[in-house]
Design goal:
The complex is a heterodimer of chains A (672) and B (321). Chain A has 672 residues and is an alpha/beta fold. Chain A folds into four domains: 26-101, no CATH class; 188-312, Four Helix Bundle (Hemerythrin (Met), subunit A); 316-504, Rossmann fold (3-Layer(aba) Sandwich), CATH 3.40.50; 560-667, no CATH class. Chain A has helices at 2-24, 41-44, 47-50, 61-64, 132-161, 192-204, 208-225, 237-243, 248-266, 273-287, 289-304, 323-331, 344-347, 372-378, 416-419, 485-496, 515-521, 525-542, 560-573, 577-596, 604-615, 619-634, 648-667, and strands at residues 335-338, 357-361, 384-388, 398-401, 408-411, 423-425, 431-434, 441-447, 452-458, 464-469, 500-504. The longest helix of chain A is centred in the first third of the chain and has 30 residues, at 132-161. In chain A, 33% of the residues are buried. With 321 residues, chain B is of the alpha/beta class. Chain B has two domains: 3-208, P-loop containing nucleotide triphosphate hydrolases (Rossmann fold, 3-Layer(aba) Sandwich); 222-313, Helicase, Ruva Protein, domain 3 (Orthogonal Bundle), CATH 1.10.8.80. Chain B contains 13 helices and eleven strands. In chain B, helix 9 crosses helix 10 (251-267), helix 10 crosses helix 11 (275-286) and helix 11 packs antiparallel against helix 13 (303-313). The model of chain B has no long low-confidence stretch (mean pLDDT 87). Classes of the chains: A alpha/beta (672), B alpha/beta (321). At the A-B interface, helix 7, helix 8, helix 9, helix 19 and helix 23 of A face helix 9, helix 11, helix 12 and helix 13 of B.
C-alpha cells in the first residue's frame, strides 16, 4: 500500500491544488469573489490563516474578512446553512489583522463603518429553476387543474339545478318492493374496483349473470364518480345514455354495454362467458380510464420533481459548505456525497450492505452512543471510518481539546513516504489528546509543537480503517483555499481506498417521522389547513348529502285577483256557476236598492227606473237584468244540485249576467 | 319479422315523415307508438304545428287511407259515423258510411263538438266498429285516430270527460318548433315546398296496411320481464296515492303503458322491453288519466309534475344503485 500511495502522491501532487483553484474560481463560490461576502463567525476563523497575503485560489476572501459578519440563521442548526452553525454561541472571532500584515500596495483601509445590524446571508432554500419543458408542463398542469376545478364546479351547479322535481314525501312507499334481484344484502357497493372484483369472482364461479351485472354496476359507478352520469334507484340506462349526450364516443361505448346487459336482464338471452367477456372488455377501459389519467399526471409530476441543482444549494457554496470538496473528489474519481440513510443501517446485519465506502463523521454528526461498537466493528475490511472533529468514542482512547496550537500541520514522519511532505492549514488549532499509549494508533498529522491533530488506527490486525481528525475543516470549501489541503484531502481518500465517500452531518436523522411532522417542518401547516378547509367546504357543498336534496320552499304571495280567479275556476269545475250567480245576484240587488234609495218602493220596476235614471241605460234592459237576477235569487233549487256535466254555454250566460250586475253596481256607486 | 326488420321499417317511416315534418321527431315517434300499439293518440297543441300534415304524410308512407273531420259545435254523430239514407230509386234505406270508416282519421279540435258527437267517435275508437240501427259494422284495419285539441281557446268548447280521455293510448303535447327548425321550415317553403301538394314531395310508401297489421301482431312476441310488470304496477299505483292526484290511472292505464312499452321496444329493434321504454312513455300514457285535486291545480301543479315526481320515486328494476 505504501508504494502504491507514494506513486499516487507523485502523480497528483501538483494538479490537485490547481483543480481546487479552478473549482473555487467559479462564481458560485461567492466568498472567493465577493469582497463584501458576509462570513459567519466560524467561517471568519479562516481569516488569520489566510492572512493579508493575496490568495490566488480565493482572491476576495481576504477583503471579505473585513466585511460585516453574517448573523447566524436561527435555523442554521437545522441545516438551512449546512454546517454554518457549528457553534453559534461562539462569539465572532475578528480577524487579527495587523498593520504589518498589510501589503504596501493595498489601498488605504476605508473608514470603519458605524455599527449596524449584521446582514442576513441568503442561505434560504430556493426551489431549483425549472427547464423550459418542465416550466411549460408545470404551468400547463396548473392551468388545466384550475380549469378542471372551475368546470366541475360549474357543471355541478348546473346539475344541481336540474335535480329531479320535488318528490312527494307521502308517496306509496308501502308499494315499493325491492326489485334488485342481483343485489347482495347490505348496503350497495359503490367501489368500482370492488365491483370488478365481484364480477371476476362471479365469473370464476360460473355465475355469469351476476358477473355481467356487477361489471355493469362498476361502469355506472365509475361514470357517476366522474360526474358524467347520476346513478340513483329511479334512473334507467336510457337516462344514463342521455346524460352522456355531450360525449358521443363514450355514449356509444356505454350503449354497447347496456345493450348486452339488458339482453341478459330483460331479454331471453342466457348469460354466458362470451357475453361476459364482451361486457368486461368494454367496461374495464372505461372504468380504469381515470386511473390511467392519474398515472400520467403522476408521471408528469415526477418530471417536475428535481434533485438539488448540480451546482449546489447556497449553503453548500459557503466556506463551511462542501460543494467544492465534492467536485474536487469527483474530479479524482471519488464519489463524495452526504449520507441520507440512517447510520443504524450500517450496523444492521439484516440490511443489505452496499459497496465498501468511507464514512466521514463531521463534527456535528449525531451518533447514538449505542451505535459506536457497531460502527467500529463496521470499519473493517474495505470500509473506513473517519471522525472529523467528532469526539471519538472511549474505545479509541482519544479526546478532543480545543486549543490554539497554530494553523500549520505537517504529515508525521512515519507517513511522509505515503503522503509526501505536505502541509495542512487549519484555523481552529484543535488537538487530539491521547489518553495513553496505544499500539494500534499512529500519528498522521501533527502541529509543529508535536501535538497530535490526526491519527489512524489499525485494529485487530486489520489495515488502518479508522482515522480521527481534530476538526473537519479539511472537508469544507474553505479548507481548499490554503496550503496543501486539497492534495492532502485527495491523497487521504485515495489512501483509504473506497471510491464512495459519505459525509455525515447534523442533518442525518433529522428527517420527519411522520407526514404531519414533515408538513410542520416545512412550515406548510397553514397552507395545508386552508386546503383542508377548502376541501371540507367543497365536500359540504357537493359531497354526500344526508337526505334527498330538495329545493328550499319558495314563499310566494298571490295577488287577490288570482285567488278570485282560482275560486271562480273551482266553481266552474264544480259545475256550480249558477249557485255562485245566485249568491251574487242577491247581494247585488241589495246593494242596488241601498244605492238608489228605492227600498221604500218595493218592486223591481221602481228599482229599474231609479237605476236607469242614474246610469242613463235603457230602462227595459235594466229591468231585464234585474228580473233575471231576482228570479235566480228567489229560486231555492238553484245550486242545490249540480248538473250532470259541464255546460259551457250556460256558464257563459251566467258570467254575462254577473258582469251586467257588477256594471250596474259600479255605476250606482260601487259595492260599498 | 325479426326485431331488426321491424326497426328498419320504423326507421324508414320516420325518415320519410321527417322529410315534410321538421323538428317533431318525438311526436312522430309517439304517433308511431300509438299506431303500432293499436291505440289512439290525442295531441294537444295550438293550431299550425303540422298535425294535419303529419297525418297525411303518415298515411301516405304507411299506405293507408286517411280522412279528416273538423269538429264543430253543430257536428252530429251521424256526420261522423254515417247513417241510413232513404234511396228513392231503390225505395229502401242504404247505409252511407261516415268519415270514421277509414284507416287513419284526424279528428281536428275534438273538443269543439258536443258530447254526443264525441261519444259517437270515442265508442267507435274503443269498439273499432259502428252500430247503427242495430247493425254493427266493423271499421277498416288498421284503424287509428289522431285527435287534436287546442289548449288555449276554452270558450265554446266541450272538454272531453275523463272517462273518454282514458280511451286514448297517449296524449302528446306539441310545442312550437325551435328557431333553427322554424328557419329550416321557411327555407323549405322558399325552396318550393307546399304542404297541400304532398305528391310533389315524392314521399315513399314504406308499408302497406297489411304490413302494419302484421307489425301490430308482432308486438305480442315482445318479451316483458316480470320485474317490469312490477315496475308498471308500481308507477300506476303511485298515481293513485299521490297527494296531488284526486283520481289516479285506471288498470287501462297499466295496460296502455305495457302496450306502448312493447311498441317502443320493437321500434328500437329489441324483442324485450326495458325500464326505459316504460319510463320514457309514462308521461304520455298517464298525463291525461290523472285528475288533480283543486288545491293542487290552484298551486299550479300539473299532471306532468306528478308523474315526474312519481318516476323519481319508483325504483327501476335491477338498477345497480
Amino acid at each position: 500500500m505504501t508504494i502504491a500511495a507514494a506513486l499516487l502522491a507523485a502523480v497528483i501532487a501538483g494538479p490537485v491544488a490547481d483543480e481546487a483553484a479552478r473549482i473555487l474560481a467559479d462564481d458560485r463560490f461567492a466568498f472567493c469573489h465577493d469582497e463584501r461576502y458576509p462570513l459567519t463567525p466560524p467561517e471568519a476563523r479562516w481569516c488569520p490563516p489566510v492572512g493579508p497575503e493575496h490568495n490566488p485560489r480565493c482572491p476576495a476572501f481576504r477583503r471579505a474578512c473585513d466585511a460585516p459578519r453574517a448573523a447566524l440563521d436561527p435555523l442554521g442548526r437545522l441545516g438551512f446553512s449546512r454546517r454554518a452553525g457549528e457553534s453559534p454561541e461562539d462569539g465572532p472571532e475578528e480577524p487579527k489583522h495587523t498593520d504589518a500584515h498589510k501589503r504596501a500596495d493595498d489601498p488605504p483601509a476605508p473608514p470603519k463603518p458605524a455599527p449596524q445590524k449584521p446582514p442576513q446571508r441568503r442561505d434560504d432554500l430556493e426551489l431549483p429553476e425549472l427547464g423550459g419543458v418542465g416550466r411549460l408542463l408545470f404551468w400547463a398542469i396548473v392551468v388545466l387543474g384550475a380549469l378542471l376545478v372551475a368546470f366541475l364546479i360549474f357543471r355541478n351547479s348546473v346539475t344541481r339545478r336540474r335535480e329531479d322535481a320535488p318528490v312527494e314525501p307521502d308517496g306509496p312507499t308501502a308499494t315499493t318492493t325491492p326489485l334488485v334481484a342481483d343485489a347482495p344484502p347490505g348496503p350497495p357497493v359503490r367501489d368500482v374496483q370492488a365491483l370488478l372484483e365481484q364480477a371476476r369472482a362471479a365469473a370464476s364461479a360460473g355465475d355469469f349473470a351476476r358477473a355481467i351485472l356487477r361489471a355493469h354496476a362498476a361502469l355506472l359507478h365509475r361514470l357517476d364518480h366522474d360526474g358524467k352520469i347520476r346513478v340513483t334507484p329511479s334512473r334507467t340506462n336510457g337516462d344514463h345514455l342521455r346524460d352522456l349526450a355531450s360525449d358521443p364516443a363514450l355514449r356509444a361505448q356505454v350503449g354497447e354495454v347496456v345493450r348486452d346487459v339488458e339482453q341478459v336482464q330483460f331479454g331471453a338471452q342466457t348469460p354466458d362467458a362470451g357475453t361476459y367477456e364482451r361486457v368486461v372488455q368494454r367496461v374495464v377501459p372505461i372504468a380504469t380510464r381515470r386511473a390511467d389519467t392519474l398515472a400520467v399526471l403522476l408521471a408528469a409530476a415526477s418530471l417536475l420533481s428535481c434533485d438539488p441543482p448540480a451546482g449546489g444549494l447556497p449553503f453548500d457554496l459557503s466556506p463551511s459548505g462542501a460543494q467544492a470538496v465534492i467536485e474536487l473528489g469527483a474530479a479524482h474519481d471519488r464519489d463524495i456525497r452526504f449520507r441520507t440513510a440512517p447510520l443504524a443501517d450500517l450496523v444492521d446485519a439484516t440490511f443489505p450492505q452496499r459497496n465498501p465506502r468511507t464514512l466521514v463523521l463531521l463534527h456535528d454528526a449525531a451518533v447514538d452512543p449505542a451505535l459506536w461498537p457497531g460502527l467500529l466493528a463496521w470499519a473493517t475490511g474495505s470500509n473506513h471510518l473517519v471522525l472529523a472533529g467528532l469526539p471519538p468514542p472511549p474505545e479509541l482512547n482519544l479526546s478532543l481539546v480545543p486549543g490554539a496550537s497554530g494553523h500549520v500541520l505537517k504529515v508525521s514522519p512515519d507517513l511522509t513516504a505515503t503522503f509526501g511532505p505536505l502541509e495542512l492549514v487549519t484555523p481552529d488549532g484543535a488537538v487530539l489528546d491521547p489518553a495513553g499509549a496505544d499500539a494500534t494508533r499512529r500519528a498522521l498529522l501533527e502541529y509543529a509543537d508535536g501535538s497530535l491533530y490526526a491519527a489512524q488506527f489499525h485494529r485487530d490486525w486489520q489495515p488502518d480503517n479508522i482515522t480521527v481528525l481534530a476538526d473537519d475543516r479539511l472537508f469544507t470549501n474553505g479548507g481548499l483555499m490554503l496550503g496543501d489541503n486539497p492534495d492532502l484531502l485527495i491523497r487521504l481518500l485515495a489512501d483509504l481506498g473506497p471510491t464512495d465517500v459519505e459525509l455525515v452531518d447534523a442533518l442525518l436523522g433529522l428527517g420527519a417521522d411522520s407526514p404531519v411532522d414533515a408538513v410542520q417542518r416545512a412550515r406548510l401547516t397553514p397552507i395545508v389547513l386552508q386546503i383542508l378547509a377548502l376541501l371540507a367546504l367543497f365536500w359540504l357543498w357537493r359531497g354526500v348529502h344526508f337526505g334527498r336534496p330538495r329545493d328550499p320552499p319558495v314563499g310566494s304571495r298571490r295577488r287577490f285577483a288570482e285567488h278570485v280567479q282560482a275560486l271562480g275556476a273551482q266553481y266552474f269545475r264544480g259545475r256550480a256557476t249558477r249557485h255562485a250567480l245566485r249568491l251574487y245576484a242577491a247581494w247585488a240587488l241589495e246593494r242596488l236598492r241601498d244605492r238608489t234609495s228605492s227600498s221604500r218602493q218595493p218592486g223591481l220596476y221602481a228599482l229599474a227606473q231609479a237605476i236607469a235614471a242614474r246610469t242613463g241605460d235603457d230602462e227595459h234592459q235594466v229591468m231585464q237584468t234585474l228580473v233575471e237576477a231576482n228570479t235566480l235569487r228567489d229560486d231555492a233549487t238553484v245550486g242545490t244540485a249540480r248538473p250532470a256535466r259541464h255546460d259551457p254555454l250556460a256558464a257563459a250566460d251566467d258570467l254575462r249576467l254577473m258582469q251586467a250586475l257588477a256594471r250596474l253596481v259600479r255605476l250606482v256607486g260601487g259595492p260599498r | 319479422m325479426t326485431p331488426q326488420q321491424f326497426a328498419q321499417t320504423t326507421t324508414r317511416i320516420r325518415q320519410q315523415v321527417a322529410r315534410v315534418l321538421l323538428g317533431q321527431d318525438e311526436i312522430v315517434d309517439g304517433v308511431l307508438v300509438g299506431v303500432l300499439a293499436r291505440g289512439h293518440v290525442l295531441i294537444e297543441g295550438v293550431p299550425g304545428l303540422g298535425k294535419t300534415l303529419m297525418v297525411r304524410a303518415l298515411a301516405r308512407v304507411l299506405g293507408c287511407v286517411a280522412r279528416r273531420i273538423q269538429f264543430t259545435p253543430d257536428l252530429m254523430p251521424s256526420d261522423v259515423t254515417g247513417g241510413n239514407i232513404f234511396n228513392q230509386q231503390k225505395q229502401q234505406f242504404e247505409f252511407m258510411p261516415g268519415p270514421v270508416f277509414t284507416q287513419l282519421l284526424l279528428a281536428d279540435e275534438i273538443n269543439r263538438a258536443p258530447a254526443k258527437t264525441q261519444a259517437a267517435l270515442l265508442e267507435a275508437m274503443a269498439d273499432r266498429s259502428v252500430s247503427i240501427d242495430g247493425v254493427t259494422r266493423p271499421l277498416p284495419q288498421p284503424f287509428f285516430v289522431l285527435a287534436t285539441q287546442n289548449p288555449v281557446e276554452s270558450h265554446g268548447t266541450y272538454p272531453l270527460p275523463e272517462a273518454q280521455l282514458d280511451r286514448f293510448l297517449l296524449k302528446l303535447d306539441v310545442a312550437h318548433p325551435s328557431r333553427e327548425v322554424e328557419k329550416r321550415l321557411l327555407a323549405n317553403v322558399v325552396a318550393g315546398f307546399d304542404a297541400a301538394a304532398l305528391d310533389d314531395v315524392g314521399l315513399e310508401q314504406t308499408t302497406t296496411a297489411a304490413d302494419l297489421v302484421a307489425m301490430q301482431a308482432h308486438l305480442n312476441q315482445v318479451k316483458v320481464a316480470d320485474d317490469l310488470l312490477d315496475y308498471i304496477t308500481d308507477i300506476v299505483a303511485r298515481t293513485r296515492a299521490h297527494r296531488s292526484v284526486y283520481l289516479g290511472a285506471s288498470p287501462r292505464g297499466s295496460i296502455a303503458l305495457l302496450a306502448a312499452g312493447r311498441a317502443r321496444a320493437a321500434m328500437e329493434g329489441r324483442d324485450f322491453v326495458t325500464p326505459d321504454d316504460i319510463k320514457s312513455l309514462a308521461p304520455a300514457v298517464l298525463r291525461h288519466r290523472l285528475i288533480l285535486h283543486p288545491d293542487a291545480e290552484f298551486e299550479g301543479v300539473s299532471p306532468d309534475d306528478c308523474i315526474t315526481a312519481i318516476l323519481a320515486e319508483a325504483r327501476v328494476p335491477k338498477t345497480p344503485a
